[in-house]
Design a protein that fits this description.
- The protein is of the alpha/beta class and about 400 residues long.
- The chain folds into two domains: about 220 residues, Rossmann fold; about 150 residues, Rossmann fold (3-Layer(aba) Sandwich), CATH 3.40.50.2000.
- It is about 40% helix and about 15% strand.
- It is built from 13 helices and 13 strands.
- It has a seven-stranded parallel sheet, sandwiched between helices. The protein has a six-stranded parallel sheet with strand order 10-9-8-11-12-13, sandwiched between helices.
- Helix 10 packs across helix 12.
- The two termini are about 15 Å apart.
- The model has no long low-confidence stretch (mean pLDDT about 90).
Length: about 400
């Protein structure tokens, strides 16, 4: 039975972001195919409570769960300097960090702990999430014969392009350098697959977002909400929500019932009587079933938008901006109506709600596009190929 060392920097069982959904789907795939997984992550205060760790263990998705500390606790300043800080400075000099590039989160302490795990166990596959931590495997003699894989999640140079001191050329070159360290580069979107493939050729594989189809898909009948908008409160979503409520919302009928779900609810303007805010739900399926149309007003960001895929799995038409189409192999006939113009955005919503034939057509396209590209069956085919499994 083959063994995987899988590094992911967050707690996947929390399921409150697209990246966690991605990690959870991969863990389920590994279990289905009989791999033994040692899951390794970094400590984030407040994230790994005893209850969340127990929930992760009970899920049976990993044989071992190891949590690394980014750096040791600074109790004695002198001891801290000689036992960690000095070694970290020397480690960063060896890495030759690129000025103006994307952040490098690989500390000397993380690398030391990571190497310790590798010395205890030989692995068939080592999977690292995000190029921030790519240097965990750089010039690492403990890897042995393992196949190394980077799950990119995003084009990070695009994510950080507004950072102070950012240099596009340096960042893109450094990101590609980090990805080139690996035997395989997994890209979640078609756009990133194409971009990375121009430089890294056969290393790059398109491993799309994948999820199970919901047990019930109901596209017709009375619904409690006209619109559903699901989002976290990351910087991209804050920009998007502000645009929607300032530019689009005033153009919508006040009779529409809107449901907003997730941490983004903290940033919804007060006093909107037709807007229901729900900060957290255990099961989004329930609310997709209660809603007619899904919204994705993203103006910035890269990669496939997971909430768009979730909506498509329920056969919901999606009204989105052009960024909402990122990562979708089908740019047309996919169940989405896309525009960056506020009046057209509002018009798409009203048109869908008042034109039953159009609504039915878009609903059917949405569901078909999901099954064609993002179903578990389609994702597993690509993963089987990447992992060398014949089915």
């Amino acid at each position: 039975m083959k063994r995987i060392l899988y590094f992911f920097p967050l707690n996947p069982v929390e399921k409150n972001s697209g990246s966690r959904t991605r990690a959870l789907s991969l863990l389920k795939y590994f279990k289905t195919r009989g791999f033994k997984v040692d899951f390794i992550t970094k400590l984030v205060w407040g994230q790994y409570t005893p209850e969340s760790i127990k929930a992760f263990e009970n899920a049976g998705l990993a044989e071992n769960i190891w949590i690394m500390e980014r750096k040791p606790v600074k109790k004695n300043p002198l001891k801290y300097f000689f036992s960690y800080k000095l070694w970290h400075i020397l480690f960063e000099r060896r890495l030759k960090l690129v000025k103006g590039s994307i952040p490098n989160h690989t500390t000397w302490n993380l690398r030391k702990q990571f190497d310790g795990f590798l010395r205890q166990q030989q692995y068939d596959y080592i999977i690292i999430s995000y190029a921030y931590w790519a240097d965990l495997i750089r010039d690492n003699p403990n890897i042995g014969k393992a196949v190394t894989i980077i799950d990119t999640h995003d084009l990070l140079a695009s994510q950080h392009q507004n950072d102070k001191g950012f240099d596009k050329g340096q960042a893109l070159g450094d990101e590609l350098r980090r990805l080139a360290l690996f035997d395989q580069v997994w890209a979640i979107s078609t756009e990133e697959t194409y971009f990375f493939g121009q430089f890294l050729r056969e290393k790059v594989r398109h491993i799309p977002m994948m999820m199970d189809a919901p047990p019930v898909v109901q596209t017709e009948g009375d619904k409690e909400f006209d619109l559903v908008y699901v989002a976290t409160d990351n910087p991209h979503n804050l920009i998007s929500a502000a645009w929607f409520f300032k530019e689009v919302y005033p153009l919508l009928s006040t009779e529409l019932k809107i449901c907003v779900i997730g941490p983004i609810t903290k940033h919804v303007p007060e006093g909107l009587k037709n807007v229901t805010c729900i900060s957290f739900v255990d099961d989004l399926n329930e609310y997709y079933l209660k809603s007619k149309i899904s919204l994705c007003p993203m103006l910035t960001g890269t990669g496939v938008k997971v909430k768009v895929v979730e909506a498509m799995s329920h056969g919901l038409p999606v009204v989105c901006t052009e960024r909402g189409l990122d990562g979708l192999p089908d740019k047309a006939n996919n169940g989405c109506l896309a525009t960056n113009d506020p009046r057209e955005f509002a018009g798409h919503i009203h048109h869908l709600l008042n034109n039953k034939p159009l609504f039915a057509q878009m609903s059917a396209q949405s569901l078909a596009s999901f099954h064609r590209h993002f179903s578990r069956e389609e994702g597993y085919k690509k993963l089987d190929s990447a992992m060398g499994i014949d089915k």
